[in-house]
Design a protein that fits this description.
Elements lengths: L3 H20 L1 H20 L5 H21 L1 H21 L3 H21 L1 H21 L3 H18 L2 H17 L3 H18 L5 H17 L3 H21 L4 H11 L1 E3 L5 E3 L14 H17 L3 H16 L6 H20 L3 H17 L5 H21 L3 H21 L1 H21 L3 H21 L6 H16 L7 H12 L11 H17 L3 H15 L1
């Protein structure tokens, strides 16, 4: 870890070069770019300074863009490297959409450089392709991610770069495991570990550690405990070596252990973390039944506000499904349900990239098995498509989100025609989300029509059971008011807004995460401003109080 003196000196040098570059840019901008790279590296070693590291790399990118204008041949490689570094840091900060854009730009630049000078730039292109693959995976685009990472591996093989090939194979193996392709993951990770052993440079110990841990995890999930044993011994030895030589990496190593569900005892023994939850289903029950019980437990935890514990229970349910010896239809559907609930919970926790990956896989599983039981699978598929649309929208992929939302509504319409008592609530919820997706893509007239239909459906539902349907109608009414305001029909905005607020003031008890009170508070705040602007001052104050109450 760098000390304060090192950081202070790096800052001082950067400030001095900024001053000089303003006076003589041609002479000092190249030195400033190098200096900013160094400062960003120092900051990146301090977890609490990662945001600042990203900002410094952003400044370096702008400096290099200026230099590329002056001398494209001399500075394009530097620009591509800096774009890739910034993408990596932004990815660690969870800013995946920005990270993807930068990684894609860097890869495009390096493709052109490698075409002209392959010997000089193919290694950097291979690294950039892996980086791009990681950012794609975090956006839920797993198949694109796999293609990008495989291309990087192929480049490393052709070049004979064994260090780089070991790292690239490790990344590929981890990605295959995350996609459920366990056997392929084991083969790939074994090759990576063998290469790390053969090369054994000090600089790659951390990657060697992460790759061995991933291999142990995949073997355990396949119930191949005996094969995992020698890798466990190798892992413990690596951990001991890294702890002694690079103690600053201990926090990262512990985070990796927790991610895979393992722990190391004070005596240095490696073991799986054990759950202390006494409600875990007994191993004598069938696997789908056990997964069903784990999902029920997770949903109860969500209702009680324990989202982190719910996320752990759902992670265990997913692992239990993936490690089944035979993927029967019942197990596959249990996995799909677990992934759907995992996507919802991750979304409520703000982990949008993880949520999208789970929701996307759930939809693919339901579609794959739809022919096996159309009547039983269409309802959860409609739910999963609705959730997928929300997850895509949270990451700014509005066109894709609209496709999923339309598919969900189409399914729910068919279901509601056959059994309105069961499926009208799902249709109302999906149509409410469809209205938002239509607005996001600029189809405001269609959004308004959808919002009116949603309100009409909720009025029917509340006529039969006013206690059951509260937050759905509140969201629908506030969204209708927003759509009317967007259509400049200001005289119609007041009625649905005040009806939503009246319903809200009548609610009691804790808020379930699915009620999405944060976005409702934002909508009401905007509507309060709109009402005040058009002369409804007293009503605007009432609406604003309702928004403030939600935030509290």
């Amino acid at each position: 870890m760098p000390d304060e003196g090192t950081l202070r000196e790096a800052r001082r040098e950067a400030d001095e070069l900024r001053r000089l570059a303003r006076v003589e840019p041609v002479r000092y901008l190249p030195r400033l770019a190098v200096c900013l790279h160094g400062l960003a590296s120092v900051l990146a070693e301090l977890p609490e300074r990662l945001e600042e590291s990203a900002e410094v790399l952003g400044e370096a990118v702008e400096v290099l863009r200026k230099l590329v204008v002056l001398d494209p041949q001399g500075h394009t490689a530097g620009l591509s490297a800096t774009l890739g570094r910034r993408a990596l840091v932004l990815g660690l900060l969870g800013r995946r959409a920005e990270a993807y854009d930068l990684a894609r730009e860097a890869t495009g630049l390096l493709r052109e450089l490698a075409r002209r000078e392959p010997d000089a730039h193919l290694p950097d292109l291979a690294w950039s392709l892996t980086n791009l693959g990681n950012q794609l995976a975090e956006l839920g685009r797993h198949h694109d991610a796999l293609e990008s990472i495989r291309e990087g591996v192929a480049i490393r093989r052709r070049s004979g770069d064994r260090d780089g090939l070991a790292s690239a194979l490790g990344e590929l193996g981890i990605k295959l495991g995350e996609m459920g392709r366990k056997d392929e993951a084991v083969v790939t990770l074994r090759e990576a570990v063998d290469l790390f052993r053969a090369v054994a440079p000090f600089a790659t110990q951390g990657e060697h550690y992460a790759t061995v841990l991933a291999l142990i995890h995949e073997l355990h999930q396949l119930d191949r405990e005996a094969e995992a044993a020698p890798y466990v011994a190798e892992f413990v030895a690596l951990r001991r070596s890294i702890t002694a030589s690079q103690p600053g990496r201990l926090r990262l190593m512990e985070a990796l252990l927790r991610r895979y569900g393992y722990t190391v005892t004070p005596e240095g023994r490696f073991r799986r973390a054990q759950s202390s939850d006494s409600t875990t289903p007994t191993p004598t029950s069938s696997r789908p039944d056990r997964v069903h019980a784990m999902n029920g437990q997770a949903l109860r935890l969500v209702s009680a506000g324990n989202l982190d514990l719910a996320a752990e229970a759902l992670r265990d349910a997913v692992v239990l499904c993936r490690t089944t010896p035979t993927m029967t239809t019942d197990v596959a559907l249990a996995l799909a349900r677990s992934l759907h609930n995992q996507g919802l919970t991750s979304g409520w926790l703000g982990r949008h990239a993880e949520a999208l990956a789970s929701a996307d896989e759930a939809v693919h599983l339901y579609r794959r098995y739809l022919k096996a039981n159309p009547g039983g699978i269409r309802p959860p598929l409609a739910d999963a498509l609705d959730s997928l649309g929300n997850r895509l929208a949270a990451l700014g992929r509005h066109a894709d989100a609209l496709v999923a939302a339309n598919d969900s509504v189409a399914l729910f319409r068919r279901l509601a025609e056959d059994d309105p008592a069961t499926h009208l609530p799902g249709l109302a919820r999906a149509m409410n989300h469809l209205g938002i997706r239509l607005t996001d893509t600029g189809r405001h007239d269609d959004a308004l029509r959808s919002s009116r239909e949603v309100v009409a459906i909720y009025r029917r539902l509340r006529a039969d059971d006013p206690e059951k349907y509260v937050y759905g109608p509140i969201h629908a009414l506030s969204n209708l008011a927003l759509r009317l305001a967007r259509a400049e029909r200001e005289d119609e905005v007041l009625a649905p807004t005040m009806e939503a607020v009246d319903l809200l003031f009548d609610t009691r008890g804790p808020h379930h995460p699915s009620n999405d009170v944060a976005s409702l508070a934002e909508s009401l705040t905007w509507l309060a401003w709109c009402l005040r602007k058009h002369g409804h001052r007293g009503d605007a104050r009432t609406v604003r109080r309702a928004a403030d109450a939600l935030r509290r």
